[in-house]
Specification:
Layout (H helix, E strand, L loop, with lengths): L8 H13 L6 H4 L6 E11 L3 E13 L5 E16 L9 E4 L6 E4 L6 E19 L4 E11 L3 E14 L4 E14 L5 E2 L14 H10 L1 E2 L3 E15 L4 E14 L7 E5 L5 E6 L5 E15 L2 E12 L4 E14 L2 E12 L9 E2 L17 E13 L5 E13 L19 E11 L1
Parallel strand pairs: 14-20
Antiparallel strand pairs: 1-2, 1-23, 2-3, 3-6, 4-5, 6-7, 7-8, 8-9, 9-12, 10-11, 12-13, 13-16, 14-15, 16-17, 17-18, 18-19, 19-21, 21-22, 22-23
InterPro entries: DUF3570 (IPR021953)
Protein name: DUF3570 domain-containing protein
Pfam families: DUF3570
Length: about 425
C-alpha cells in the first residue's frame, strides 16, 4: 500500500476497462429490465507502527437502467494523520528540523529516523462512470474523477471501448484517461537542493523568515498524466476466465515531493546540511498485468501478476493471490497473500556526500528506493437475504527497504538507515 499514490488515475481507467471486459452476456429479455440501485459501503483503517494512520470511508452506488445502460458513482473520504519519514538520515546526536510551513521546528532524538509528526490531510474524492452498448458487440464507458485535499487538486476524464468476439467469450478493450493535478503545498514549493534554514542560525526572526522565503517558490504547480490501457479477456472454459492488460502512462510536470529532503554528510557520516530533494519532471511507465480466476465447487481461486518498468529505472513485480472458500451456502472465508518487489530509481540516494557536489536529481524517499513488501490477510463474508453481503477483512502489511549498494560512511554504519514499515489494515464492508 503506497499512501502517496492517492491520485493514480490509472486505477480509475483500469476499473472502467475491467467493467467492460467483465460485463456478462445477458439475454434480450433481461436487457430491457431496469434494475434497482445497488450500494457498496466500506470503512477501512490503516495504521503503521509509529507512523501514518489512515481512516477511509467509501460509498458506491450502481444502477442498470436497462439495456445495459449502467451508472456507477462513488464517494471516498479519507483522513491521514501521524508521522511521515522526511528522507533525512539518523544521527548519533539529536537533530532539529524546520517544519514545511516554516513556522515551527521539531527535534528528533539520537539514532532515531527523522519523522515529521505533523502529517495531516483530508481528501474527498468523487467518481462517476457510465457504461452502455454502442452498436452490435461494442460497449463504451466514460467517467469523471475529482479529488481535493488541503494542498492538492486532481481532475480527470476517462473513456473505454470494448468489442466482444466468439459469442462474447473473447473481449478486447481500449481505454484512455487524462488527469490534471494542481499542487500548492503548505509553505510553498522548495527550491531544489536549497538548504533548510534553522532559526538558531539567525540573529532575528526577520532574518530567518527572509532566509526561509528564499528557499521557496511562490504559486502552485501542476502535472499532467495520460494513461492508455489495452486489455483482452478470454473465457477458457466453464470454470476459468483469464485477462491480460498492457498499460502505458506518461506523466509531465511537478513530480518532486515538496516535503522530502536529503542529508548532506561528511566522510564521518555526520550531517553538514539538509537540502530539499529534486526529481525529474517527466516519467513514462509501462506495465503488463495478467489475471486468472478459476471457479471451484467450493469457491473461487484468483491469482494475478503485474510487471511495471519506467524510465526512472524502477522495475517492480507484484504477485497477488486470493482463495475464496465457501464455509456454508451463506458464509465464506478468503485468505489473501500479496508480494511486491521493487528496484531503486536511478536518482535514489539515501544521503549526499559533501565532497561530491550536488547532482541534477536526487531523492532519499524510500518509496522510490529498492524494497520488498508483503501483505497477508483474511476476509470473512456473510451472504444475507436479497443479495446483501457483510464482510470483514484483516491484513498485516510489511515493507522492507533495501540498501541498493551504498557504502555507509563513518557513524552511519552503526545506524539503521533502512527500517521496515509495518502496518495493520482492517475493513468492514456492506453491500445492499
Amino acid at each position: 500500500m503506497q499512501l502517496n499514490q492517492r491520485n493514480n488515475i490509472l486505477g480509475a481507467l483500469t476499473a472502467a476497462t475491467c467493467t467492460l471486459l467483465g460485463a456478462p452476456a445477458v439475454s434480450q429479455e433481461a436487457q430491457s429490465v431496469e434494475e434497482p440501485w445497488k450500494f457498496d459501503t466500506a470503512i477501512l483503517y490503516y495504521g503503521e507502527s509509529e507512523r501514518v494512520t489512515a481512516v477511509e470511508g467509501v460509498f458506491s452506488a450502481t444502477k442498470d437502467f436497462g439495456n445495459e445502460h449502467i451508472f456507477n458513482g462513488k464517494v471516498t473520504i479519507d483522513g491521514l494523520t501521524g508521522a511521515s519519514a522526511t528522507g533525512a538520515v539518523p544521527q548519533p546526536t539529536a537533530q532539529t528540523f524546520t517544519r514545511p510551513s516554516g513556522k515551527d521546528e521539531y527535534d528528533i532524538a539520537a539514532t532515531e529516523i527523522p519523522l515529521d509528526d505533523t502529517f495531516r490531510d483530508t481528501r474527498v474524492q468523487l467518481n462517476g462512470q457510465w457504461t452502455q452498448p454502442a452498436w452490435q458487440d461494442y460497449r463504451v464507458s466514460g467517467g469523471l474523477h475529482v479529488s481535493k485535499e488541503y494542498d492538492y487538486l486532481s481532475m480527470a476524464v476517462n473513456g473505454a471501448l470494448a468489442k466482444d468476439f466468439n459469442q462474447r467469450n473473447t473481449t478486447v478493450s481500449l481505454g484512455l484517461s487524462y488527469a490534471f493535478d494542481s499542487i500548492d503545498p503548505e509553505g510553498g514549493r522548495p527550491v531544489a537542493f536549497a538548504s533548510m534554514p534553522l532559526k538558531r542560525d539567525f540573529a532575528s526572526e526577520q532574518q530567518y523568515q527572509d532566509a526561509f522565503d528564499a528557499t521557496r517558490l511562490t504559486g502552485s504547480d501542476d502535472k499532467n498524466t495520460l494513461d492508455l490501457l489495452l486489455g483482452v479477456t478470454q473465457v477458457i472454459n466453464r470454470r476459468t476466465i483469464m485477462q491480460l492488460n498492457y498499460g502505458v502512462s506518461a506523466v509531465d510536470g511537478y513530480l518532486t515531493d515538496p516535503f522530502k529532503m536529503l542529508s548532506v554528510v561528511n566522510t564521518q557520516g555526520l550531517t553538514q546540511a539538509l537540502v530539499y530533494e529534486n526529481r525529474p519532471d517527466n516519467r513514462t511507465r509501462h506495465n503488463v498485468f495478467w489475471q486468472t480466476k478459476y471457479a471451484m465447487d467450493s469457491g473461487v481461486a484468483d491469482i494475478s501478476y503485474r510487471f511495471t518498468t519506467d524510465d526512472w529505472d524502477i522495475d517492480s513485480h507484484t504477485l497477488d493471490s486470493r482463495l475464496r472458500y465457501n464455509l456454508s451456502p451463506n458464509t465464506y472465508i478468503q485468505p489473501h497473500f500479496r508480494y511486491y518487489q521493487q528496484s531503486a530509481a536511478d536518482f535514489y540516494q539515501p544521503y549526499l556526500m559533501a565532497s561530491d557536489g550536488l547532482p541534477q536529481f536526487a531523492s532519499a524517499d524510500y518509496r522510490v528506493g529498492e524494497m520488498t513488501a508483503f501483505t497477508l490477510g483474511v476476509k470473512y463474508g456473510v451472504l444475507l437475504d436479497q443479495g446483501k453481503e457483510l464482510a470483514f477483512r484483516l491484513e498485516y502489511y510489511q515493507q522492507d527497504p533495501k540498501n541498493p549498494g551504498f557504502d555507509a560512511p563513518g557513524v552511519l554504519q552503526d545506524l539503521d538507515l533502512y527500517p521496515s514499515v509495518k502496518a495493520v489494515m482492517a475493513q468492514v464492508s456492506y453491500r445492499f
